[in-house]
């Protein structure tokens, strides 16, 4: 039995995991990218540096980390309301500074559009913006189902190198205990049904967010080289989005998509300075 380090809260008749640590006037909320099996461990290197001065919260969506998989829609409104409810039931209150990685960038933007008083700023960790999904090549339903089936019957356990290829492990960001926990969550959570549904819904969700325009909140994007992503002009598109903001900035980091594990110190320092200036 895997023991969650945070609190389990009931949302829409399923249990969600929210991990918090640190103290401070600002609450930083970390939102994982699609398919990240263990968000609370994936973000650990970064939030451990920021929790010295701030309150941090990691919300694990349905089918991620210690949260239960559930038969719930992955429409962006449903996901956002579940995230908000989970934070509330874990004792956290807005406004928040959002730290979205990858696909969660769309949810963060939508959150700032729909509830502007709840979002003080967005600090994007190679975050997707709604417009990139206009050219995003969705994997076939068959491919997603095959991967899910393979994970459910335990095939991934025969390939431990896949789990060990994660940036958090490759960059030696985790203790031996946390590495074992990461592997256990990876074997349990590889391409869950909720992850599949998120991917199937992403174009519709991105379209809904794009139709709301650009939110008027401060944003700081840390942008990778985009080489690991199936989207052309990733770096240029995110930079252009940032440049068009009234209070936006970005930093190009010539590294991979999980840059919060490869460039942790740099991102922590830059984030702390940005937050201090808000």
Given helix and strand content, the structural type is alpha/beta
In order across it, which strands form the biggest sheet?
A: 1-2-4-3-5-6-7-8
CATH architecture: 3-Layer(aba) Sandwich
Average pLDDT level? 90
For the termini, the CA-CA separation is 42 Å
The H/E string reads: EEEHHEHEHEHHHHHEHEHH
* Sequence stretches where pLDDT stays below 50 over 5 or more residues: none
What is the helix content? 40-55%
CATH class: Alpha Beta
What is the CATH topology assignment? Rossmann fold
Organism: Paenibacillus sp. AN1007
GO molecular function: hydrolase activity
InterPro entries: AB_hydrolase_1 (IPR000073), AB_hydrolase_fold (IPR029058)
Domain AB hydrolase-1: 28-138
Describe this entry's structure for a reader:
This protein has twelve helices and eight strands. The longest helix is centred in the last third of the chain and has 19 residues, at about 195-210. Helices cover about 40% and strands about 20% of the residues. It is globular. The protein has a single domain (about 5-275), classed as 3-Layer(aba) Sandwich (Rossmann fold).
